[in-house]
Every structure is written in structure tokens, then in C-alpha cells.
Specification:
CATH topology of chain B: Amidase signature (AS) enzymes
Distance between the termini of chain A: 71 Å
Radius of gyration of chain A: 29 Å
CATH class of chain B: Alpha Beta
CATH superfamily of chain B: Amidase signature (AS) domain
Distance between the termini of chain B: 10 Å
Order of helices and strands of chain A: EHEEEEEEEEHEEHEEEEHHHHHHHHHHHH
Helix content of chain B: 25-40%
Number of helices of chain B: 15
Strand content of chain A: 15-25%
Largest sheet of chain B: 8 strands, mixed
Radius of gyration of chain B: 21 Å
Order of helices and strands of chain B: HHEHEHEHEHEEHEHEHHHHEHHEEH
Structural class of chain B: alpha/beta
Number of strands of chain B: 11
Oligomer: heterodimer
Number of helices of chain A: 15
CATH architecture of chain B: Alpha-Beta Complex
């Protein structure tokens, strides 16, 4: 029997506001626990929330980016439950009247085709704090860090329009690309700036009836999300094919151990007792405010991709990859405009740099090699000052913090020898010193002679300590050997 | 000195008849000597008060004194005071010392007022008799076997006993007006949004409103001048200029149209109370006002709607008291759930727990529409009643509460009987309207209150009518035995 997979996503996006959604405390990541939590975040008695206007603007910008209806009047509700990282005992969120209504996101699939994923809505809400179960706490205590409490979020809820892990990842990446391109989120997944809840169900191929779904919560990397979906789909099919039924439940997936477990069943689900928050007035958005934001919208990823093809002559594929991440796109444009060589800028940004960042698990924003430094390196490659092999060495040295390309080339004496007189002398000397190889070359069939060139090349590079310009050496060598035939 | 009004105290201080230190010491002495009989004050801030009084005297001497410079007042213990325990009448906050001031507290500080201490109240402002306070009930200075009303019973009793010339209070369903009536003083609940709620510990956020208590309408006007402000820390606070509430006090009531709702004179109203209120209305009529019988047809629905909406909001507002960050935490919790359950069971009193349970129930899945949703519809109807009424009248008047102060324990076993204490006051909170109570008679030696309800932001109109009535009556100058 074959099965169809149905996937819907809920994506929590931390908004890149300086202060929290209902207080003036900083949202900066990584501070000492509880140093960025004010009386409001701590839910001290008598404190009241005041809505951060920038968070509202960011939410509207997301709505505009996905061509959604903007709620002219949206409202906040209280979602009630007890947990130590939720100081008020309720989360202030939006239920009945979210700020962003129905919208659409187009995703590109591996085969080059596109697909539309519908957005059900996106709403504003506050993040909770964090419970710390390790570190200085003995087994009977947990710590609470409320720095994150009150960080503004939008929760983006998709329709169940995706039919595979690949589509879900493409959608998640597209949302990442949109929110980073318009600058409403820093996109730092490892810091929890984007978190995914995945709703998965399976049904017999072609059936119109949806299967029972499970929700796997709080996935914070594309890789974990892909694994979690694939494992959950396989698990559900196994259960059903073994005659079992899927229980509606909330699950957790541990990306390190690759084990998923049930967190709570439908029966254990909380009754959140939502009701309108009486401390906050409805959010009224004017047409002028929407138009103002629309006029100042940064370039969206799709538009940027088209411009990269047009302006830099990139392939659709390269332009798509570079524009999918705003930080990478900005980096690429900075490199390209500094070195005036879009092709090399593309190759190096997508190739060596991306690979190295991936290996070190670094984001491009934290790249040890600045756009200016990479451009400096590309300039020296393009003007033949260094060979490709040297370029890799120089790149490593820049990465290690040894300075600019020029400084490193100078310090390491890596300057490529391109003086044709000097190169000619080198070739002549090597040929003279290796008469046996020269004889062998002359006596070989013409068709096989080309293979013998490598041997001379090696000798010459050795003699030049690797600094001879290989293209020029090739030319001179071929010319000299031909003269001997 | 304790028989002078705030208006007189301000003059006396400014003309150097007495100093703020003398005045403050006088009231501190009265609290020390008399309050053991009333239990109106939870915390006395002697040292800070005398320091503030000395500073006020300096400003008075320098000639740059603000309006209330040197005038002693008391704050209801629901307003957060920086560095001074703010208990909200609860064991839960018995150890709570806020690191910030309520905006109301700030406003009085800026106006130069001297804070004598914090007044007793029903726990988390939930009660109409002050019997739910963790610190014990407040006794009515007019009859110490009777309740002072609630929840601002401490503030009302303190003003009636001349322990302070004025006090702050809050009103969610009548908590300023009912104790003002029962203690024979004046108190006004302003329009919702007129006084900042920042730092005022929430009971029911959409209904809570701070306001002043004093012996006269004029003093209430002086206090409200300082208390009312726009505050960007409270999103429900309304950005509207604060008028000088004393400016129109002397305007005549001639031609004033006073609506008298027939529903406020129905079954359950004590005949003595009715008689006193009717007499007060007749007095205003003599002064030139016109009485118009009106109907507020949905009045009967206000108590049931209120006892859904207020507990629903309270159930969420009080969730923060979980023993985790401040306030009471039970001994040796064995796990998280045990900490929550026992901290809340031991830290909250019975009435607070009752309302949390009612509110939680009303918001639960399957019950929300029938209770909370329906109550919000009723709230709109009640509001509409008032909007229609104010098309024809300038003010609405009637009794503040159905009967004079009852004896301790009289309604203790019957929460519904207690809730009916607020039958005439609750509707104004649901509608967000301003309302006031002023003394208008005595029954069995206990005071009766006349309630005056105004249109939105017409506090000045209410205060004007109240002041005019007080020019022609002397109920507000009477003092309980042994007080004057």
C-alpha cells in the first residue's frame, strides 16, 4: 500500500526588536541569566504591558511580504497555564483576531518546479523564559532564566499543504529567507530565533480523508526537522500497517539522540481558557501605516534572485541560493562590488566560504573572513598574482586572522612568478637537467605526449617553490618541447 | 487639626499656621492611639513620613510648594510603594516589598503629600466588608461591631476616624463608594482610564479604578486633581487633559437634570436608607435641580455579569502568585506542582480562592460562551442603558448600597448576600462610568450614602453637585462618637 504524507508547519519567529514586546527590557541574546528581565517581565504585582510598536510593524511587514490580509483591528488574548518560565501564569498572544490573515508563499522544489503554500494566519505573541536543569543546580532544583521572557514572536501557521519532508524544508527555508531579507528576524537558528512545530499525518494514497496528526514541537534546525519528519512519517506508516491507530499527541524530537517521544496526549492537553487581555487595547492599524511600511519594504528574496540574474549574470540556481539567505546575499553583494568580479565572488561565497562556515557551524554574519577580505583575495586571483592553490592557502590564513590577502601574500612570499623571462629560464634549466625525460617525451607517440607534460610541470613548480604561474609555464614548456621535436 | 479639611490644611500650611511636621506628628499620634480600635492601617511609615514632612516644610518655606505640599494622606495597601511592604491585604504578599512606586503614589509624591502609611483592605480587594483581610477586619468607627464596607474599608475608616484627612482607594465593583457610604465620608471612583493603574495590584483589570476618599467633595476634588493623570505605562489610561476639579464646585445646581432610576429603589432597599436618599434628592430639588424618573432596565443583570467577568479576569491576574519569584512560598515543597498548590492554598484566603475557582470555571472550554461571552453581552446592554439615560439627564442619583453597615459575620456564610451589597455600584464599573458616594443621613446611628453617577469624564459635574449638596447639609461634618 502506498501512502500520502500531509504536513503543516507552525513557525515561531523571534522579531529583531531592540526591546521586548511589552516592556523596555533588552532582547539581546546571551546575557547573564535574569539580567534582561524587568519588573514587567518578572510579572511583579501591579505592572502592566505596553505594546512595542516596532513588533507590530514587523508583523505587518511579514504580512506584506506574503501578500496577506492585514488585520486592521487585531487583539490580544491571555492563554492561561502554569509553568515556571511563564511568570504571569498566562502568555499574551492573539487568537480570534490575529494581525496577519491569509497569505501565500511560493516555494521552489528540487526539480525546478514551484509550489504554493497557503498561510492560514500569523499572530503576535510573547516568548517564555527558559528552564535550566543543568549547571549549578543540584538534582532537586531547576533554574529559571527570564531574559527571553517577553521577546516578541510571530507565530506563522501554514495550511497542511506540504506532502514531503523536502517540501516542508523548502517552505521553512523560504520563510527564513523572507524574514531575514526584510530584516524582522536575525535568523540565528542556533540561538532559537526560529523554531518549528511540525504537524504530520499520513493517509492512503489518493484518499480525501486526512489521517490523525501528531505535532512535533520546537525543532530548531532544518536538519533536525527533516529527520524528525521522515522518522515520524515512517513511524505512522508502521503503526497503521501493523494494524494500529495513530494517537493525536504532541511529540518531542531529540536531534542529538535522534529519538522522538510522546510529550502529552490529546487527553492531557491543557484547557488554556483564552480570553481577551483587558490590559491591552485592540491594535488598530491604519491604511497610512500599512502604505508607509509597504513603501519602505526591503527587497524580497524572489525579487533579489531575479536581480542577481539580471545584474550579475548569475545562473538562476546560483542566484536562488545566494538570495535565499539575506546575510549571504548582502555578503555576496559586498564582495562583488568590492572586487568587481561577480563570477569569482559567487564561486567563493557559495564554495570555499560556505563550506568552511558549515564545517565550523558558523553563520555568515559571524564569518571570520569579512566581505572586504574575500574581495581582496579575489582581486589577487583575478590579476594572476596568486594561483588557485595559493588562494586556498591565503584564504585559510585570512580565516585564521593573519590579515588581508595582500599582507599574507607579502608575509609568506607567495607572490606568483609571472615574469616570462624568468619562467623561460626555469623551463630551460629543468629541461637541461632532465635529458632522459626529454628523450622519452620526444620518442613517445604524439597522442600520449600530453600526459608526459605533468612530470616537467612538477619539476618546474618544485624549482620555483610553487610560485611559478602554471598557465604561463604550460605555454612556455609546450613551446620549448615543440622546438626539440 | 484633624477636623480641618484638606482645603483648610493647605491654607494653614501655606500661611504657616502650623508645619507639616506638626501636622504629620499629630496624625501619626492619632493612628498610634486610636487605630488599635479600628485596625484601619496595616503599615505605618513613621520615619519616612516625618522626613517627607520636614522636606515639605522646607519647600513651603522656600515658597515653591506644590498643591498638596505637606498634607498627610494614607495609601490603600494595593498601591505599590517603593521600599515599603505592599500586602494587598494578603498573606501571599505579606513579605512583598516593591522596588517601584505606583503612578498614583508618584503623583502624590510630586504634589508634596506626606504618606503616613498603608491602609487595610479586603484581600486582593475581594470583599464588601473588609472581613477577608489577612490582617483582620477593619471596624467601622461609627459602630465597632459593624463592618466598614470594602474593599477600601481601611481607607474609609481611617478618614472617618480622622486618622488622615484623605486616602487613596480603588473601586472594582463599589470598593470606594460602598465603604465611603458605610463610614459616612465622601469618595469618588473616576471614569475608567482616568487614573493610572500602573503599580495598582490588579483584581479585575477592565473594572479596577483608583480614586480618592476624604470627608468632603471639595477635598475629593483636590485629591483627584493630583491622582488623575495620563500615564503611558498603562495602555488603558486615556490621554485626556485633567481639568481643575475644584474650578466648578461653586456652580449652582439650578436646572441640573438628575435621573432617579426606579430600579435603585426596589425590593431589598432598607426603608431608612430610602428615606435618607429621598430627602437628599428633595434637598437638591430645593436647590433648583430637576428630578427625572428614569429606568436602567438591565440593572438586575449587573451583579451576575460582574461575578463572571471580575472573577474571570482575577483568575488570570492572580496566576502570577505562584511562589516562584516573590511572595509566599510553602515550606519544603516536594515538587513543582506541590509548590504551586500549597503556596496558593496557604497564601490565598477563602474568598480569593472562591473567586479564582469561579473565574477559572467560567473561562473553561465548553462554559466560556455561556458565562464569559454572555456576561460581556450583558455588559454592553448595561452600558447602553446608561448611554440612553444620559441623553436626557446630567447626573444619576440613588442609594450607594441597600442598607447601613451590617454586623461582623452577618453575611459571612452567604457569599451571594455579600455580593448584593454592591447591587447599586457594580453597573457603573461595568459601564466604566464615574460614580461617587457622599453622606446623606443616618439610620440607627450609622451613615447612609447618596450615590451620584456621571457621564464619562464628568467627574467635575459629580463633584459640583456633591459640593452643592454639602453646602446645604452637614452630614459630612459629623463625626463618630469620641472622634471629633
Amino acid at each position: 500500500m502506498s501512502w500520502d504524507t500531509v504536513i503543516g508547519l507552525e513557525i515561531h519567529v523571534q522579531l529583531a526588536t531592540k526591546t521586548k514586546i511589552f516592556s523596555g527590557a533588552s532582547t539581546a541574546y546571551g546575557a547573564e541569566p535574569n539580567t534582561q528581565a524587568c519588573a514587567i517581565d518578572l510579572a511583579m504585582p501591579g505592572t502592566l504591558p505596553v505594546l512595542n510598536k516596532q513588533a507590530v510593524n514587523y508583523a505587518i511587514m511579514f504580512g506584506l511580504a506574503i501578500d496577506a490580509e492585514i488585520g486592521q483591528v487585531s487583539a490580544f488574548e491571555r492563554k492561561n497555564y502554569f509553568y515556571p518560565d511563564l511568570p504571569k501564569g498566562y502568555q499574551t498572544t492573539q487568537l480570534e483576531k490575529p494581525i496577519v490573515g491569509r497569505g501565500n508563499v511560493e516555494i521552489q522544489l528540487a526539480d525546478g518546479s514551484t509550489k504554493n503554500v497557503r498561510i492560514h494566519h500569523a499572530h503576535l505573541e510573547e516568548d517564555a523564559g527558559k528552564s535550566l536543569h543543568e549547571g549549578n543546580f543540584n538534582s532537586s532544583f531547576s533554574g529559571i532564566d527570564l531574559n527571553r521572557a517577553g521577546t516578541p514572536l510571530i507565530e506563522i501557521v501554514s495550511e497542511p499543504d506540504m506532502t514531503s519532508a523536502e517540501e516542508a524544508i523548502a517552505f521553512a527555508k523560504k520563510i527564513h529567507s523572507i524574514v531575514t531579507s526584510i530584516g524582522i528576524c536575525d535568523g540565528e537558528m542556533s540561538q532559537g530565533s526560529m523554531r518549528f512545530d511540525v504537524n504530520v499525518s499520513v493517509k492512503p494514497s489518493g484518499s480525501d480523508t486526512l489521517g490523525t496528526r501528531t505535532e512535533t514541537k520546537n525543532l530548531n534546525s532544518f536538519k533536525f526537522m527533516e529527520e524528525a519528519i521522515k522518522r515520524e512519517v515512517a513511524r505512522q506508516i508502521d503503526v497503521i500497517e501493523d494494524g494500529g491507530t495513530i494517537a493525536q499527541e504532541t511529540r518531542l524530537y531529540n536531534g542529538e539522540t535522534k529519538v522522538a517521544r510522546s510529550m502529552r496526549s490529546k487527553e492531557e492537553a491543557n484547557d488554556y481558557r483564552y480570553f481577551p487581555c483587558p490590559d491591552l487595547l485592540p491594535v488598530v492599524v491604519s491604511d497610512e501605516q500599512i502604505e508607509e511600511l509597504r513603501r519602505n519594504m526591503p527587497e524580497l528574496p524572489d525579487a533579489r534572485q531575479a536581480r542577481f540574474v539580471e545584474q550579475y549574470g548569475l545562473s538562476e540556481y546560483d542566484a536562488g541560493i545566494l538570495s535565499s539567505d539575506a546575510a549571504m546575499a548582502n555578503y555576496f553583494e559586498a564582495v562583488s562590488s568590492a572586487c568587481k568580479n561577480a563570477k569569482l565572488a559567487t564561486n567563493w561565497t557559495m564554495g570555499e566560504l560556505s563550506a568552511r562556515l558549515n564545517n565550523e557551524d558558523l553563520s555568515i554574519a559571524n564569518s571570520p573572513v569579512s566581505a572586504e577580505q574575500l574581495a581582496g583575495l579575489i582581486v589577487r586571483i583575478a590579476d594572476n598574482s596568486i594561483s588557485g592553490k595559493m588562494a586556498k592557502e591565503v584564504f585559510e590564513a585570512i580565516w585564521a586572522g593573519e590579515g588581508s590577502a595582500d599582507q599574507i601574500i607579502e608575509a609568506r612570499g607567495l607572490k606568483q612568478v609571472s615574469d616570462s623571462g624568468a619562467l623561460e629560464q626555469m623551463v630551460v634549466d629543468v629541461l637541461a637537467a632532465n635529458q632522459a625525460m626529454v628523450d622519452d617525451y620526444i620518442n613517445t607517440d604524439e597522442a600520449k605526449r600530453k600526459k608526459k607534460l605533468g612530470g616537467f610541470m612538477g619539476q618546474i613548480m618544485k624549482a620555483s617553490k610553487g610560485q611559478a604561474n602554471p598557465q604561463q609555464v604550460n605555454q612556455i614548456l609546450a613551446q620549448k618541447l615543440n622546438e626539440l621535436l | 487639626m484633624h477636623n480641618l479639611t484638606i482645603a483648610e490644611l493647605v491654607k494653614g500650611l501655606q500661611s504657616k499656621e502650623f508645619t507639616s511636621v506638626e501636622l504629620t506628628q499629630h496624625f501619626l499620634d492619632r493612628i498610634a492611639n486610636l487605630d488599635p480600635a479600628y485596625n484601619a492601617v496595616i503599615t505605618v511609615t513613621t520615619e519616612q513620613a516625618l522626613q517627607a514632612a520636614a522636606a515639605a516644610d522646607q519647600r513651603l518655606a522656600d515658597g515653591n510648594a506644590p498643591d498638596l505640599c505637606g498634607v498627610p494622606i494614607l495609601h490603600k495597601d494595593i498601591f505599590c510603594t517603593d521600599g515599603v511592604r505592599t500586602s494587598c491585604g494578603s498573606k501571599m504578599l505579606d513579605n512583598f516589598i516593591p522596588p517601584y512606586n505606583a503612578t498614583v503614589v508618584e503623583n502624590f509624591e510630586k504634589a508634596g503629600a506626606v504618606v503616613l502609611g498603608k491602609t487595610n483592605m479586603d484581600e486582593f480587594a475581594m470583599g464588601s466588608s473588609n472581613e477577608t483581610s489577612f490582617y483582620g477586619a477593619v471596624k467601622n468607627p461609627w459602630a465597632t461591631d459593624s463592618v466598614p464596607g470594602g474593599s477600601s474599608g481601611g481607607s474609609a475608616a481611617a478618614v472617618a476616624a480622622r486618622l488622615a484627612p484623605g486616602a487613596t482607594a480603588t473601586d472594582t465593583g463599589g470598593s470606594i463608594r460602598q465603604p465611603a457610604a458605610l463610614c459616612g465620608i465622601s469618595g469618588i471612583k473616576p471614569t475608567y482610564g482616568r487614573v493610572s493603574r500602573w503599580g495598582m495590584i490588579a483584581f479585575a483589570s477592565s473594572l479596577d479604578q483608583g480614586g480618592p476618599m476624604a470627608r468632603t467633595a471639595e477635598d475629593c476634588a483636590l485629591l483627584l486633581n493630583c491622582m488623575a493623570s495620563y500615564d503611558d505605562k498603562d495602555s488603558t489610561c486615556i490621554d485626556r487633559e485633567v481639568p481643575d476639579y475644584t474650578a466648578n464646585l461653586n456652580r449652582s445646581v439650578k436646572g441640573l437634570r438628575i435621573g432617579v432610576p426606579k430600579e435603585y429603589f426596589s425590593e431589598g432597599l432598607h426603608p431608612g436608607t430610602e428615606e435618607a436618599v429621598r430627602a437628599a434628592l428633595a434637598k437638591l430639588q430645593e436647590q433648583g435641580a430637576e428630578l427625572v424618573e428614569i429606568s436602567l432596565p438591565n440593572s438586575a443583570l449587573s451583579v451576575p455579569a460582574y461575578y463572571v467577568i471580575a472573577p474571570a479576569e482575577a483568575s488570570a491576574n492572580l496566576s502570577r502568585f505562584d511562589g516562584a519569584r516573590y511572595g509566599y512560598r510553602c515550606e519544603n515543597p516536594k515538587d513543582l506542582e506541590d509548590m504551586y498548590c500549597r503556596s496558593r492554598a496557604e497564601g490565598f484566603g477563602e474568598e480569593v480562592q472562591r473567586r479564582i475557582l469561579i473565574g477559572t470555571y467560567c473561562l473553561s472550554a465548553g462554559y466560556y460562551d455561556a458565562y464569559y461571552g454572555k456576561s460581556q453581552q450583558v455588559r454592553q446592554l448595561i452600558q447602553q442603558d446608561f448611554v440612553s439615560a444620559f441623553e436626557n439627564v446630567d447626573l444619576i442619583m440613588g442609594p450607594t448600597c441597600p442598607s447601613p453597615a451590617f454586623k461582623f459575620g452577618a453575611k459571612g456564610d452567604d457569599p451571594v448576600a455579600m455580593y448584593l451589597e454592591d447591587i447599586y455600584t457594580i453597573a457603573t464599573n461595568l459601564a466604566g462610568l464615574p460614580g461617587m458616594s457622599i453622606p446623606c443621613g443616618m439610620v440607627e446611628g450609622k451613615p447612609v450614602g447618596l450615590q451620584i453617577i456621571g457621564n464619562y469624564f464628568d467627574e467635575a459635574g459629580i463633584l459640583n453637585a456633591a459640593h452643592q449638596y454639602q453646602q446645604a447639609s452637614d452630614w459630612h461634618t459629623q463625626a463618630p462618637e469620641g472622634i471629633a
